[in-house]
Structures are given as C-alpha cells and as structure tokens.
Structure prediction request, 264 residues.
Amino acid sequence: MKPSAKRRAVYWNTVSSSTVFHPMIQEEPLSIRIRKSPYAVVMRTPGDEFAHAAGLCLAEGIVDTPDDIADLRFCGGPDADIVTVTLTAARQKMIRSILKHEGGPGAWGMAGGGFVQRLRGVTERLPDTAFMDIRRAYRLLEDLADLQPLRRRTRAAHAAALFSVDGKPLCIAEDVGRHNALDKAVGKLFLAGTLGSTSLLVLSSRISFELVQKAARARIPIILAVSRPTTLALALAFDRNITVACRAKESGLYIFTGRQRLVE
Prediction:
C-alpha cells in the first residue's frame, strides 16, 4: 500500500472555487504480535512494517539486541496489517513479566504514572561521549524539510532523522505519527546492526516523554526538534543525561538539557 493517495476537495478563495485532487497521507492500523499474542495496535502510515515493529520492541524493552528476534513475518502476506515478532526462547523467558501486560502502550492495566515508571525502568543514563558542532546541528534541524518527500506531497507527515556525530545522514522515516516515524527510523538501523553510529535525532514535532524514552532506549544522546519539549520529557532527559534543544522563536536554538554536547 502506498503512503499517500489522492482525494477530491473543493478549493475556495475569495475569487472562485474549483475541484482539485490533493495528495492525502494514508493512515491504517498495524497489529504487532509477540509470538501469537496481540501486543499493540498502532495507527500508522503503511511502509517499513518490520522496522516499525522492531523499533517499538526496542523502545519498550521487549528486545535489547537484534539477536533477541528469531523471526519477523507478516500474517497473511506482505499486504497484511499484522506483523508477528518471534523472540528467542531465552529472551521470551526473560521478559515474561512485561508480556503479562500485553496490549501495548495505553493498555497496561496500570495507572498512567505506573506506565511512565515502567518505561523509565528500561532506560539508562547516557555517558558524555558524543559532542557535536552546534552550527552543524542547527543546520540539520533547519534543513529537515528537505528530507521529507511525503510531507511535501501531503503536508501531513512527521519525520525522524538520525545522523552520525559528524552530521552524516543515517536514516530518515516519515509517518502520520511522530512516534511511529521514530520507531521506523530506529528499527531500520537496529535490524541492520548500525544503530550505535547514531548521535543525533532530529524531529519535525514537539518533544514528548515517549520520544525521549525511545531515544534513551536507542542510546541517542542528542535530540533537536522543531517544537518545544514537555515538562515530563525534560525531566527524563535530565535524568538520563540527554541533550534536548528546539528551534528558537526568531532563529537559533533553545537548549534545555545537555548543553555540554553542543560545542562551538
């Protein structure tokens, strides 16, 4: 299924109105199963389903390395909307307590605070090992739109772009959901075994707690975004020593945490 499709609309302005066909971003459900049991259903833009599933599993502590995954496959063919993740027997046993709460984000059978604490528990504090030229990082944020073909067509796609410490682009993913875009980008590099090369995450969205948590699980030390972070996101970033910055109102950056990593 393509990530976008054309739909008819009426274009109106103060002079006239006419019928146009406008590219619209696709949104479809994807069911992710661990072995044969339902784990999560996400609303996403079709594409990169295996990477999406792998990235989500990494973010939530289901897997730590690609070797924890024994198999990834569609249920019902490549056009199906169900992906089954089969873990190794050892990993399946190790995460048994997590899988007791099957149903994925928002369906853990616990209060919101309990869900936040569980996600905090699968992340670690990051060391100060990646330092990036602040002007280069700022340019990458400013140029993010140039890497978003789906956004140019539909004006409705979020993006997550991953870069090395010297600004080399490693992976970019677009999706109707900002968290889906990050799962897909991380998942691609995770499955390829190259996630460790990532030092910078650039987001087209605001910075929420969930996005900082996903970055922490992927051990990405620097996050730049178009919009500002939430208070809970900053609390986690400070606690896990992650650099968080966003575009300033006029020009430049607001740096909230981890200023030491962005150097002149």
User: Anything to note?
Assistant: The chain has a mean pLDDT of 90. The two ends are 45 Å apart (CA to CA). The domain at 132-263 is CATH 3.40.140.10 (Cytidine Deaminase; domain 2).
